């Protein structure tokens, strides 16, 4: 059975490297082309050493990117929207990993990204690429957006509470995300190797992070406050969300809500233990996987629930969700190419 041809635009960054790693290990996909203006003519493994021996491709300029069944755009924010008509001629299906098509409201997009959207007519053609929130819309879709890693961690943390309808609409939610330096991208450091070794802190947004708009769009919440702080690690994001319920939750009720939320989700797990070293979600235990670990803690007197979600920001927060969306778009098993065990110790 022939495999679908995949081209990756903007393949020299961290997300591009992870996408190619997943495509090369996918039983139904074939990587046929990868672009990078700065690295054109060099072998993929010279930029992404973990791909050494996996394929014999060289980077090409964007102008020479081959047409494909699936075109994955891993370009900087703003580049996909400005050339979307051109890209639509290169790929039967498109997944854009930037923020260009994540929001369905042009006015909201302009407010969070600081400029008018250059391709407003395309916004409603893209399905938001978080399968846990948009699974049925992604089935057979032609266009899907990527997801923000911080938004993904927060959306999955509060998923059980939102689906159960138990949140107090008159109380604010405070979401705090601790994220690794790779969130800022490879270009954020003048020395990618230095960032990779040391986990250089590059991102800090105590208020006003643009990913808040994604959480509001998916959850319907309007009293959410998101903060993002970079920590001294390379991979991983941990969302800690302080929320209040209409009535105080009992522990047995919380277990029921979280079990119901993950029942049919192939990449969601509960981590909620009474003893041991890893009682709560921890990004370090998820490196290289598309898994999100969920947990919680309850203050029975105040009605406060602390909802937790840990992910690998480059995987479930970017490349992994993109390939999971691709599987739904193209009719593959949703888990195809994504059943990866984490590396431990890290």
In short:
The protein is of the alpha/beta class.
Give an overview in words.
By secondary structure, this protein is an alpha/beta fold. It has 2 domains: 4-126, NAD(P)-binding Rossmann-like Domain (Rossmann fold); 149-311, Dihydrodipicolinate Reductase, domain 2, CATH 3.30.360. It has helices at 14-24, 44-47, 79-82, 84-88, 106-113, 131-138, 149-164, 192-198, 212-219, 251-262, 315-330, and strands at 4-9, 29-34, 68-73, 91-96, 143-145, 173-179, 204-205, 224-230, 237-244, 268-270, 292-299, 304-311. The strands form 2 sheets. A 7-stranded mixed β-sheet has the order 7-8-6-9-12-11-10. Helix 7 (149-164) runs parallel beside helix 9 (212-219). The protein is globular, with a radius of gyration of 20 Å. The model is unreliable at 189-195 and 197-202 (pLDDT under 50).
Number of strands: 12
Shape, per Cα inertia axes: globular
Spans with pLDDT under 50 lasting ≥5 residues? 189-195, 197-202
Strand order of the largest sheet: 7-8-6-9-12-11-10
Number of domains: 2
Proportion of β residues?
15-25%
Give the ordered list of helices and strands. EHEHEHHEHHEHEHEHEEHEEEH
Into which percent range does the helicity of residues fall?
25-40%
What is the fold-level CATH name, i.e. the topology of the largest domain? Dihydrodipicolinate Reductase, domain 2
Rg is: 20 Å
Mean pLDDT equals: 93
- The secondary structure category is alpha/beta
Label the CATH architecture of the largest domain: 2-Layer Sandwich
Relevant CATH superfamily of the largest domain: Dihydrodipicolinate Reductase, domain 2
CATH class of the largest domain: Alpha Beta
What is the CA-CA span between the terminal residues? 38 Å
Main pleated-sheet profile: 7 strands, mixed
Number of helices: 11
């Amino acid at each position: 059975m022939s495999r679908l041809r995949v081209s990756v635009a903007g393949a020299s960054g961290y997300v591009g490297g992870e996408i190619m790693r997943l495509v090369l290990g996918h039983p139904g996909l074939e990587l046929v082309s990868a672009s990078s203006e700065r690295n054109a003519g060099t072998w993929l493994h010279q930029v992404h050493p973990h791909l050494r021996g996996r394929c014999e491709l060289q980077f090409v300029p964007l102008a020479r990117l081959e047409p494909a069944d699936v075109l994955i755009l891993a370009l900087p924010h703003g580049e996909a929207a400005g050339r979307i008509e051109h890209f639509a001629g290169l790929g039967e299906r498109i997944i854009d990993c930037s923020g260009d098509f994540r929001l369905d409201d042009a006015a909201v997009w302009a407010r969070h990204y600081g400029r008018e959207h250059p391709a407003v007519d395309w916004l409603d053609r893209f399905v938001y690429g978080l399968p846990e929130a948009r699974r049925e819309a992604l089935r057979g879709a032609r266009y899907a957006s990527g997801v923000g890693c911080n938004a993904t961690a927060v959306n999955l943390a509060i998923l059980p509470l939102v689906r159960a309808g138990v949140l107090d609409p008159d109380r604010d939610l405070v979401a705090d995300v601790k994220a690794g330096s790779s969130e800022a991208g490879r270009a954020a450091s003048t020395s990618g190797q230095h960032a990779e070794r040391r986990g250089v802190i590059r991102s800090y947004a105590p208020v006003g992070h643009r990913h808040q708009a994604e959480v509001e769009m998916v959850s319907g919440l309007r009293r959410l406050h998101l903060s993002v702080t970079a920590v001294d690690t390379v991979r991983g994001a941990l969302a800690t969300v302080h929320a209040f319920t209409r009535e105080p939750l009992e522990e047995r009720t919380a277990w029921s809500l979280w079990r119901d939320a993950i029942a049919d989700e192939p990449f969601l797990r509960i981590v909620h233990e009474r003893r041991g070293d890893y009682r709560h979600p921890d990004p370090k235990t998820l490196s290289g996987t598309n898994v999100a670990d969920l947990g919680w803690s309850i203050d029975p007197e105040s009605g406060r629930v602390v909802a937790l979600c840990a992910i690998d920001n480059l995987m479930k927060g970017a490349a992994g969700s993109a390939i999971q969306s691709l599987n739904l778009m193209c009719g593959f098993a949703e888990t195809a190419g994504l059943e990866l065990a984490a590396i431990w110790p890290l």
